[in-house]
Amino acid sequence: MEGLLDHSLRDALTRVGGVDRCVSEFIRVTGTLLPCRAFERVVPELRNGSRTAAGVPVRAQLLGSDANCLAENAARLAEMGSAGIDLNFGCPAKTVNLHRGGAVLLDEPETVAHIVAAVRRAVPAHVPVSAKMRLGFNDDSRAEECALAIEGAGATELVVHARTKAHGYRPPAYWDRIADLRALVKLPLIANGEIWTLADALRCREVTGCKDLMIGRGMVSDPGLGLAIQAHDAGVGLTDKLDSPDLPDASRAASWASLLPLMLQFWYRVSLHVAARHRAGRLKQWLNYLRRSYPQAQQAFDELRLMHEPVHIEQWLQQALQIQSKAQSNT
């Protein structure tokens, strides 16, 4: 999720818990063997054993159409210790597609197979090579061909976003088509798309037959969603996971109070690599998602909406944390 789920937000979300693995933002490969510093800029976790501070593995994601060049870059990433290589055949961005990257390749199953096979050959056998695809570009008529191509080329697993490029991110997600692919291929399949709540996750599993799920915007909006799913799988009552009696929704497994210190930590990380004029926008971007799940996020968004100076944002965060700390000590 370019421009949203970068290493700063990965750090925050994996500290909450409930995440088994992360995939980086895509690294665009266009005819050049990238230097190590280019990979580390997008995936600084490579300097930490390819894991977040919370210990969650991170796979580097590559995007492009030049199989040989992708293979060379994948080999370098493997040498750097990446927890795996992920190949992007799902990005719907117009600019990316115009340069023959992402979902546009789903009209060329043979090219998809060539890329996956080249990368699989280029990295050691113990390094996982996964792929993510949508159901297609303009329609889903070649979804089965693409899934079989990815499997036949030796991918370790396949994530399917249950929409075409033409669908964009508009609901619904067509989970039933993932079920069709699951009946066809034998490699592990992971379902993705429109998973915002525990109920969505359970329904997606039921329809697709996939136990494993990839969650993007849903986790950004509700950082405790992974915990809620794990609690359900363990047969633990969700209320056992809650740490505040005044949560707005009984399905929240991470309280607003628990998110505030993570938000401040996120802000400090963003401040290290984002220009001052853009930092406020990064925090507001996350709050914009969080207000889907937390009324407190709506209040925070309203208070920060016209605030742009980093020093004022930081003061607001520290004050919010102090207020929260006092409220907790008085209860």
Characterization of this structure:
- This protein folds into two domains: 7-239, Aldolase class I (TIM Barrel), CATH 3.20.20.70; 256-329, Up-down Bundle (Bacteriocin As-48, Chain A), CATH 1.20.225.
- 47% of the residues lie in helices and 11% in strands.
- The chain contains 14 helices and seven strands.
- The chain has helices spanning 7-16, 36-42, 67-79, 94-98, 109-122, 143-152, 175-182, 198-208, 217-221, 225-233, 256-273, 276-290, 295-304, 310-329; strands at 22-28, 58-63, 85-89, 129-134, 157-161, 189-192, 213-214.
- It has a seven-stranded parallel beta sheet with strand order 1-2-3-4-5-6-7, with helices on one face.
- Strand 1 (22-28), helix 2 and strand 2 (58-63) form a beta-alpha-beta unit.
- Helix 5 packs parallel to helix 6 (143-152).
- Residues 239-251 have low confidence and may be disordered.
Question: What's the overall geometry?
Answer: globular
| Whole-number mean pLDDT | 93
Gyration radius over CA = 20 Å
Number of helices: 14
By CATH reckoning, the class of the largest domain would read Alpha Beta
What separation lies between the terminal Cα atoms? Answer: 39 Å
CATH architecture type of the largest domain:
Alpha-Beta Barrel
Helix content: 40-55%
- Number of domain modules: 2
Low-confidence stretches: 239-251
Tally of DSSP β-strands: 7
Q: Helix/strand/pairing class, anyone?
A: alpha/beta
Q: What percentage of amino acids are in beta strands?
A: 5-15%
Largest sheet: 7 strands, parallel
Largest sheet: spatial strand order = 1-2-3-4-5-6-7
The CATH topology name of the largest domain reads TIM Barrel
Please trace the helix and strand order, writing H or E for each element. Answer: HEHEHEHHEHEHEHEHHHHHH
By CATH, the superfamily of the largest domain comes out as: Aldolase class I
